[in-house]
Amino acid sequence: MTHVRHALGRLAATAFLAVVLAFFTLPMLWLATAPFDANPRISVSLPEFTLANFAAILEHPYALASIGNSLIQAGGAAVTVVVLAALAAYALSRVRVPGRDALLYLLLLLSSVVTGTAAMVPIFELASRLGLVDTHLGLVLVVSGGLLPAAIFILKDFMDETPTSYEESARVFGASPLQILGHIVVPLIRPGLATIAVWAMASVWGGFLFQFILLRDPGKTPGSVIIYTLYTEGGQPRLDLLSSFSLLYSLPVVAMYLLVSHRYGFRFHGGIKR
């Protein structure tokens, strides 16, 4: 009887995992097949093979340019977040400031509570007064500011786990703090920097609210906003264009993830063992 219950339990667990796996797999399967279907539908089926959907999306006046805009904005934000977060995390890790940990947790808490929607009006007003509306720089600065607290929090853990003996040896030979950070600390925390870079780039790549509000020129619009235009005037999605553009738009991030994962791996903690 015990063996029967054990077998039934394993069968139920397997069935549950199969349902969960299908729940996440079917949308990806649709994304892989619908762009090549002459008549795509909201269902997974054998496609009537065609490349006309890609030809149609290439004729869109802003589709390919929007992917380039996304690369500029997401790449700029990733570089900004990695550089500033590394500097701030190193300072917070090495300098003993009263209330340091409380300040860090407060920044992280505020970045989670004060969301982009709640802060959109003052952010837009500030960007407008500084002349940053409808510019790549303005968008990069705004989205980077929202990502920095979490990035600093993650990188500080890597900094804390990095032995200070190497830094002390370099300091004896006259190395400056920036030289120590660039030549000693950064090579040791490359997995953390890679994780933050991919996370920041993916966050901006799929972002919509700030991009939609801060950018007015269609020539500067990223792909996440261009997708919003691939609907008919009646609000019906054009599945042929949506599926084709979504597949093209996802490829750079997937390629970056695979490249960085293969080279560095992804971790959210730790430097090297002491």
CATH first level of the largest domain: Mainly Alpha
Q: Pairing-aware structural class of the strands and helices?
A: mainly alpha
* Number of separate domains: 2
Mean pLDDT value: 82
Cα Rg: 23 Å
Q: Give the low-confidence spans.
A: none
Topology of helices and strands:
Layout: H1 2-33, H2 52-58, H3 63-94, H4 100-113, H5 120-129, H6 136-160, H7 165-172, H8 177-188, H9 190-205, H10 209-214, H11 223-226, H12 239-263
Helix pairs in contact: 2-12, 3-6, 3-9, 4-6, 6-9, 7-8, 9-12
Brief write-up:
With 274 residues, the protein is mainly alpha-helical.
Walk me through the structure.
- Helix 2 (52-58) packs across helix 12, helix 3 (63-94) packs parallel to helix 6 (136-160) and helix 4 (100-113) crosses helix 6 (136-160).
- The model has no long low-confidence stretch (mean pLDDT 82).
- This protein is mainly α and 274 residues long.
- The protein contains twelve helices and no strands.
- The protein is globular.
- The protein is 70% helix and 0% strand.
- It has two domains: 2-50, no CATH class; 61-263, Orthogonal Bundle (MetI-like fold).
- The protein has helices at residues 2-33, 52-58, 63-94, 100-113, 120-129, 136-160, 165-172, 177-188, 190-205, 209-214, 223-226, 239-263.
- The longest helix is centred in the first third of the chain and has 32 residues, at 2-33.
- The termini are far apart.
